[in-house]
Task: structure prediction
Amino acid sequence: MPEPISNPPVRVGLCGLGVVGQGVWQHLDSKAGTLSQRLGGPVVPVRAAVRDPAKPRDIVVPLERLSDDPLALAVDPEIDILCELMGGTGLAREVSLAALGAGKILVTANKALLCEHGAELFLAACRGGGQIFFEASVAGGIPIIKALREGLVANHFPIIEGILNGTCNYILTRMEREGLEYPEVLAEAKRLGYAEADEALDVDGWDSAHKAVILAFLAHGIWVPLPRVRLNGIRRLTQDDIAFAHTFDYRIKLLANIRRDFERGHLAVSVWPTLVPRREVLGNVNEVYNAVAITGDVVGPTVYIGRGAGRDATASAVISDIADAVLWLRGRRGLPLQTPPEAEAACELAPAEAIENCFYLRLTVEDAPGVLAQISSALSAHHVSIASVLQRPGRQAGEACLILTTHRTNQAAMDETLSSLGGLSCVLADPQLMFIGGDLD
Ligand code: NAP
Ligand code: HSE
Result:
């Protein structure tokens, strides 16, 4: 048997020692033997930068290993791999560019950073001779980046769908199971370390959109600008929506959808609350779990499920990146990403007229004669065909809760319909719109 090769220690610096950073430090320590054996030498967390070195933490890190200067850590010659685990897009961008400029390997879990500055960062990596690994940026512990980048290299991807935000899935699951409203559950998601520092990123759909943009980049080679992602969150969902879903055998999921129409050369990315049939796999992914369903033209449908947030699941993904980074340092280069200029020439972002869905529409309306007629005229004026109507008493006297589902219609028609409905005095609050998944129509 050949002697195991023992390379000098690879030194890891962590910018950020919060939920994720502490998990990474802890498991680099706890798995030191296995990692050293499998990677042909030790991988050691040597320093971390934080906002407040004196803050009490769940893990013990000697004070002399902590600093409050992430930029200095990024260019420290005694660090080989820099993990950006702070979050945000300001200082995180500076730190990442500094590390890449110094020729270091960057590992990041920061989807907002990649979504907003990915093109610039990958260029910097290319110029500085470094590399970026970002497995933890999408779907927590699920190795989805590796699957798309390497395992499915033989495929084109007409459709990728996913539950990409653990916090929202946790909230929706508990709203359904316990009849709670969303603010009550959000506090628990924060305590468990699932939510972003700014929870609006989670509940308003931005975090899922950041992740969808990264998946679209991996699958199609294009950085879709965030304003071109059709986006809505879960903030306005109520027990009325949950009750409808339950009655008709659906579950509400915040679903990211990346559709590529290869014939027309269109790409569309959306994140929207969606009624998912319970008989489907994604309809049974609950709590903090994420799932990504990828259909490849060669492989067919595939589904990946796992914890989408939290210390250990995310640390698992970051450590897999650190392992890839170690191999990169030793000359093992992996598959290159698609090049954006070629990909951009092959497709364009789909106009709203070209994207079709069945819709769920909940309206709070005046409970008065003629109201239903006004609503149905607004829909028919834009050629939106109603599939079903359900009316319940509203929360206040004199109000009704009206729930309509539509046949398949395009998003431009639905946008115009919503704008017409907004102009009716009998419509008392902003409509709640959801996509309907499955084969309803
Ligand atoms: P967190 O718990 O808020 O930790 C952030 C860390 O960064 C803290 O250690 C903080 O220092 C440090 N930091 C923040 N601003 C700093 C500054 N200006 N200078 C120096 N240090 C600074 O965040 P997290 O949940 O670990 O998330 C980190 C990243 O991972 C984010 O990009 C997030 O989107 C991503 N992510 C998180 C999860 C998850 O489940 N939490 C999952 C996947 C990806 P102090 O400790 O001194 O405050
Ligand atoms: N806040 C994110 C979520 C963390 O809840 O999914 C994982 O990216």
